[in-house]
Amino acid sequence: MSYSESVALKALAKVQDLSGKRDIVAAGRLGDMSFQDGYLRAILLIDPKEAEAFEVVRLNVEETLKNLDGVERVSVMLTAHKAAPEIAPRQKRSANPHQARRPEGYQGDAFVDHVIAVSSAKGGVGKSTIAVNLAVALARQGKKVGLLDADIHGPSAPILLGLKGKRAVTVETEGRRLIKPFESYGVKAMSIGFLTDDGPVVWRGPMVQGAISRMLWDVDWGHLDVLIIDMPPGTGDPQLGLAQDIKPRGAVIVSTPQDLALADARKGVAMFGKVDIPVLGLVENMSVFICPDCGSSHDIFGTGGVKAEADKLNVPLLGQAPLHISIRESGDNGVPIASGEGPESDIFHSIAQNLMAILLA
Ligand SMILES: Nc1ncnc2c1ncn2[C@@H]1O[C@H](COP(=O)(O)OP(=O)(O)O)[C@@H](O)[C@H]1O
Ligand SMILES: [Mg+2]
User: Fold this and answer.
1) Ligand 2 centre from 159 Cα, in Å?
2) Which portions of the chain are predicted below pLDDT 70?
3) What's the 230 CA to ligand 2 centre distance in angstroms?
4) What is the CATH number of domain 3-92?
5) Quick count: other Cβ atoms within 10 Å of Cβ 119?
């Protein structure tokens, strides 16, 4: 703990908890705190039911921290946590500390018909590109679509959907304080990028899950036909915990055609199998390289790999997206390729149709 963090901790020990009986540190409210270059961030753990009442405490905490020497900027975030205030959250955590929690009393996931986890074993294979374009394609096909960017360490929805720099606000809806998602290309989107000031977040495991949980359950999604989740890359405990908590209707696994990537795709299928979540299909990304000058296509990584793997695993191949500069550029520019016309856009529309056909079968 840095000097400033310990000073902050002492100051916070003088702020009263909601009950008025204890201070917030003794009550186990402090989930995480970090101090860097004059920027102090704290996360307070609350029961979602307390969200509104707790705003007063949050403001007290913010005020207290702002007055500390050397602190220029403060961010105090409330994170939904099931821990009862009387028990320190650290003792109450389940065996799997990564597991996110559905708030108590939450009415199932009635707000959405189909939750789809878009997953990949490794970063950089185009998971976010596929997730966003799939969401945009479904929206253009008339579906009510949400996109939850659950990749806390590398959020990309804000850039891909042209929402960079936006800050989410909360709204009072049916007695609950909910985060308002941003809508872009007909897709309601939620990302950690809308909640924090700086780039990738370096929270520790349980906080990550708390934040994802909040972005799922405490968002004013309205009614959705489909919620696409851009999962964090990997097939380890955090991903498993998240999949168990969210219980998607099914998963879509993104892979590139190289052998190594295929081995990872297999791991992904195995992971979802462990928690009885069906893999609805594979998507091959960067399948062939399309030359931007002459339009000819080149099998740089070999061809047919994902199709063969899909056959072996007995899951459908939903589609193949080529490596095409327009796909990258449209992503960087925040204008998803699926929002326009052309062969690259068509591919995502066909992936979306194939997915819907499976969901509605
Ligand atoms: N089919 C594609 N053609 C060209 N560039 C792509 C394609 N798919 C992804 N990219 C680019 O590759 C990079 C990584 O993609 P991204 O979707 O962020 O991957 P992930 O979410 O798996 O880390 C981005 O710059 C993206 O624009
Ligand atoms: Mg990504």
Assistant:
1) 11
2) 1-2, 81-110, 197-209
3) 7
4) 3.30.300.130
5) 30
